Amino acid sequence: MPDTLFAMPYIGQIILDGRLNEPCWSEAMTIDNFTQREQNEGIPATEKTKVAVVYNSTEMYIGIWCYDTETNKISAQQMSRDFSWGSDDNFEIMISPFNDNRNGYLFVTNPNGALADVWVGDEGKDFNKDWNGVVDAAVQKNEQGWFVEMLIPFSTLKFTNDSSQVWGINFERNIRRKKEQVMWQGWSRLYDIEKISQGGKLAGLHNIKQGTKVELKPYALAGTELTNDKPSNTDKIGGEINFDITPTLKLNFTVNTDFAQVESDRKQINLSRFSLYYPEKRQFFLEGKNYYDLNIGSVRLFYSRKIGIDQNSVIPIIGGARLFGKLNQTNIGIMSLQTQEKDSIPTTNYSVIRVKQDIFKQSSIGLITTQKYSDKGYNRIYGADFSYSTSKIFGNKNLIAGGEFAFSDTKVFDNKENLNRDNLSYNIFLSYPNDVIEYDLAFTTIEKGFNPEMGFTYRNDYQMFYTELQFNPRFNSLPFFRNFNFKPIDINYYINPETKKTETVFYELRPLGFVTKSGEFMEFNVQYIYDSPTENFELVDSAVIPAGKYGDTRFEFQVSTFSGRKISAQAFANVGKFYTGYRQEYAIVTFFNFNKHLNLSFDWQRNYINLPEKSFTTDEISSHFDYAFNPEFQMGLFAQWNNEDNNILINYRINWIPKIGSYFYFIINQEFNTENAIKLERTTIIGKLIWRLAI
Asked: How much is the pTM?
């Protein structure tokens, strides 16, 4: 069967060194029928690639042969764990032990032995790079190419308890100098590797065991904070206990939860009248996050940063429990956490229950409820969603349609007012995400009383109509261009549900965009923005936009070079009218990939704002410095500054993986005031060890 790879049982020892010289690799079944997805769809790969899988009762080994006729041109700039693989030669493995045409695990490695692992849900709709599995790989390079041995313990994966297993699987190789992408199955441009319903099958797995049933992850932390006052020392212990309730369902208990190792947020200057969104970075909440997500359009019903953070202040978490995973065809996510009392904030319980049922081949239906409860009151959300997905519309095209619905229930104990009027929200959508033609359509309503206190919404009290049509044609006769990008329609139209008056309109026309065969990108956009704030709102430096009706025309230009080079860059410019005046917005990002150990990036965003009453400039600058000694030991520095806060924030981290699943962090955070002169105001030094014990 050309779409099935049979794994071979093997009892002998395999030394993980990338040499592929054990007897099993010559005895096992190999597949080598790789086909181009890019640049020449449907054409055989220009470089030979082979894959084989062997296993024993507790772990699986994947052997990969990436032959190359020009080994001196192999591109591999990174070595760190969880690296960004988009610019390197790499090999990707998508495994779905559930064999459910929806969910699975993506493992990526490159010629330097860098390793990344990702949880993938709904065939790429959920893409969690922060999931960390117990997995290892070794690479060997020689004059014939680069070769990989990857070890995946079965305890890393979730699968049923059947004696005989058939899993979904697919493989992808990227050869960056040729801009060539080859896949084993599903090589159409309509499907990415995450589209596991188009992949192949891994068979021949018999009597395998997940092994670990209980996992202990205690941590110890010690640190000090230095300010103008006397030093403040801290020490802390805590940890997690994980139980495999079933082979596919995990129960997690956490005590004295701490996130000291997390990199600082990128500070943003808000030049709008709406809330800013900051992504979650805490590993505890990122693991399994897809089991708790449900969005009403752009509204997040569960936003984990509402737990343990208030106005950028840390609220200690006493502890809690989580249950997440898959039971037959049902995805389950249950979480309950209790935070400590701090200042005027009472001790509070945060809970969420999310259930999603697989139906048909690629579709789902689900429910969610969240609750925030303290002695001051409670807030609850009840919601449901449905998604129909197919890859067979018009033959082999993709189509997704569905909707979400939710309402809030809020009670303040010392307030008799009814807070549950106009408390509904819903969204219906249609998406046609394909290679040449992309089309999206949605209608969203968020009533003014809808109050997701455990969620995030950047605005409320609106109805919004959204539609976007985009064409990505390819002309094989043109030697320079890979594809063009034209967008005649991209509109977000907001109205007030009560008055039916237009509040905001965003329209974008893209007369020209393209990607070259060498990997460069450019697009030019014309934008029209209508906004009618009913109240004055402040930008920065006491600059005020008065209530009124404004129609602004703006022009936008974006360009980037191919990221696989030693030096690459992205540039952005957006100029035109801005409420009562004019705005020029510029941004540049540069990347310096010196070698496989050292990577540096720098970005600068500047706004020139000219209003009748005043003119001002905003600047946001940041830089990342990363040095990987090897895939298990790396250090990084993140520095940032903006002229609204007038301070420099520096985050220095050392991350060492003494063994797979265990981590040591050494962190230094510093804050400098730059208002009059550069002055050090605060230094925090922390060491944290997390140790994994499997029972």
From this structure: 0.83
